[in-house]
Amino acid sequence: MQVIWDLEKAFVKDAIEHLPDPKPHYNTIATLMKRLEEKGYLAHTEYGGSYEYYPIIGKENYKQTFMKKVLNTFFDNSYFNMLAYFAKEEKISPEEMKELVKMIEKDKK
Q1: Who has the most CB within 10 Å: 37, 53, 59, 87?
Q2: CA separation (Å) from 12 to 42, 56, 88?
Q3: What predicted TM-score, i.e. pTM, was given to this entire model?
Q4: How much is the pLDDT for 82?
């Protein structure tokens, strides 16, 4: 999705050009873009049998949808479980945890 947002619209070959090496196979990216379209994230315009894809969902909406799925799938729909995981795995520093607590307390006021 990031490549499509960056390019604003792209054929499969354009998307592949903007990916890091090693480049994935053309069919892999074509299938991925088709699946993203089926899920309602992309749409396309057809030019003589070639599809130029463009995003129909913004980054923020995509992020919210993605994070809801992650939260539900891996953390039993619990923000506490998610934050506890990152704390236990030391993926978040004590300073960052304090900042999160401040943000939560501020929002409750």
Answers
A1: 53
A2: 12, 17, 40
A3: 0.71
A4: 85
Q: Is there a contact between 2 and 58 (Cβ–Cβ < 8 Å)?
A: no
Distance CA 109, CA 107 (A): 6
Q: Where do we find the tokens 């992650």?
A: 70
**Segments making up each domain of the chain, as ranges:** 2-55, 59-108
- 108 vs 13: CA distance, rounded Å: 48
- Percentages of the chain per state (helix, strand, coil), in multiples of 5: 60, 10, 25
Both tokens of 104, joined, read 């939560």
Give the total residue count for the chain: 109
- For 13, residues 6+ apart whose C-beta sits below 8 A from its C-beta are 26
CA 105/CA 30 separation, integer angstroms: 46
The string of pLDDT tens digits covering residues 17-76 is 999 999 999 999 999 999 999 999 999 999 999 999 999 999 999 988 888 899 899 999
